[in-house]
Amino acid sequence: xxxxxxxxxxxxxxxxxxxxxxxxxxxxxxxxxxxxxxxxxxxxxxxxxxxxxxxxxxxxxxxxxxxxxxxxxxxxxxxxxxxxxxxxxxxxxxxxxxxxxxxxxxxxxxxxxxxxxxxxxxxxxxxxxxxxxxxxxxxxxxxxxxxxxxxxxxxxxxxxxxxxxxxxxxxxxxxxxxxxxxxxxxxxxxxxxxxxxxxxxxxxxxxxxxxxxxxxxxxxxxxxxxxxxxxxxxxxxxxxxxxxxxxxxxxxxxxxxxxxxxxxxxxxxxxxxxxxxxxxxxxxxxxxxxxxxxxxxxxxxxxxxxxxxxx
Amino acid sequence: xxxxxxxxxxxxxxxxxxxxxxxxxxxxxxxxxxxxxxxxxxxxxxxxxxxxxxxxxxxxxxxxxxxxxxxxxxxxxxxxxxxxxxxxxxxxxxxxxxxxxxxxxxxxxxxxxxxxxxxxxxxxxxxxxxxxxxxxxxxxxxxxxxxxxxxxxxxxxxxxxxxxxxxxxxxxxxxxxxxxxxxxxxxxxxxxxxxxxxxxxxxxxxxxxxxxxxxxxxxxxxxxxxxxxxxxxxxxxxxxxxxxxxxxxxxxxxxxxxxxxxxxxxxxxxxx
Lengths: 311, 272
Description:
- The structure holds two protein chains of two kinds.
- By secondary structure, chain A is of the alpha/beta class.
- In chain A, 38% of the residues lie in helices and 26% in strands.
- Chain A is built from twelve helices and 13 strands.
- Chain A has a six-stranded mixed beta sheet with strand order 5-6-7-3-8-9, sandwiched between helices. In chain A, strands 11-12-10-13 form a four-stranded antiparallel beta sheet.
- In chain A, a hairpin with a 2-residue loop joins strand 11 (243-248) and strand 12.
- In chain A, helix 3 packs across helix 4, helix 4 packs across helix 5 (130-142) and helix 9 crosses helix 12.
- Chain A is elongated.
- Chain B is globular.
- Chain B contains ten helices and no strands.
- Helix content of chain B is 78%, strand content 0%.
- The longest helix of chain B is centred in the first third of the chain and has 37 residues, at 63-99.
- In chain B, helix 3 runs parallel beside helix 6 (158-185).
- The two termini of chain B are 35 Å apart.
- Chain B has helices at 16-28, 31-54, 63-99, 101-108, 113-148, 158-185, 188-213, 216-221, 226-234, 245-269.
- The chains are: A alpha/beta, B mainly alpha.
- At the A-B interface, helix 2, helix 3, helix 4 and helix 6 of A face helix 1, helix 3 and helix 4 of B.
């Protein structure tokens, strides 16, 4: 169980995490989703006390992380695959990490086996591929048999087999009643792994709901269209509930209007259409929907369209 | 997939002996440590051999001075060794910052200060032992050769052994001083520059100032520099500074204390 209350982190004048509160519950996989730079890693670092919050607090299993008698038993964290001395062997890295808590060779060998690192355990970490480094980071996170697991972008650099393995591991550990908190900037990954989602955008929580609910909330279909006079059409279709985005010149994605309505409007105005395709929203698009308002690019591009159409 | 967690570790908890063991594993499992210590011992023995074999003595040398000559030949390697442990002490922590390892360390020991103290303790003890080995080894190399030239240490003189131990102590304290610097600066390049600058450059600069401007303050400061006080710890007759042996120890301890306390405060306060 992870509980954050009014968590805030400023770096100079920049606010990385802006007054967020959330709870990560045991027995399920909670996905932590957001574009790069949304504040996911900063939040995770604050959970294990690496970064000090500018305001607010966060507890793990009822206490601040540093107050626990056996921190590695409470939380296993993969925060950065490169948080390992490159001159030391994987085995010695795990042995040193475990030694702080009196965790010995037997358990070290076990997590090495668990993460499939047997063949490289004696080698210096400096020569590891990204994927092997990731596995070693996960092995270190598992050392204390922790009740809560925090994994920041765990599938980064893994091959398809490794991705599958992380997915199964997360689901398995959640099934044992553990708290699993998993970050990613890839919605598709979350769709397959997570039960619950916390979506972060520009340091704020923009959604905190079960995956199914997030999917349901954005099943309003979008319509893709192409037209040589897309700008004019965009101006014509402007409305309160209508969202128009341009992906490339002459192409629009519109939500809030159905394909027949758009087709009729275009015909009445004498604007030719080269394509008009209704698309069902996927989880990926639901995510784009959610994070759109938190990406400056979107607001700018719509404004440009409106401006040009007004001339 | 088989069960992810087979062996439970229910009794695991963070403990001071555990943190010390962890730091010992870390220290011994990187190459730079082994190399640094091997170089110190090898160079010390080499220098002792060189000094003993090439020095010539004439006339009647008093017994006390004879003991002093043997001591100097035995501890000369510490002059050189302090530069090596200066680098090693910085690397012990700056290597963790440059690789990101520090985040793993501080996740395992979230209160942070115990991790730094364990590092200091392990580095201190190991360096002290290596210092003893190289001083005693140097003594065993140099003493028989010097004896052949009529220079014999008074083996019943307790201060001979005391001074050899103090030389090893100084070496260990320099390592801890550098560890503190590395913690403050968090960078290998910066830390090493600062450590070697303090040990090597500061005395030279002060000497230059004192020589060029006849500034009395520069001359007055000289005995309080880390390396000068350090040498004064184990070579009684070295300087005319007027500092007693115990005062020299105290001066070195102040240098080490300031560096480690500053490092500890910053380690606790800064984001990792």
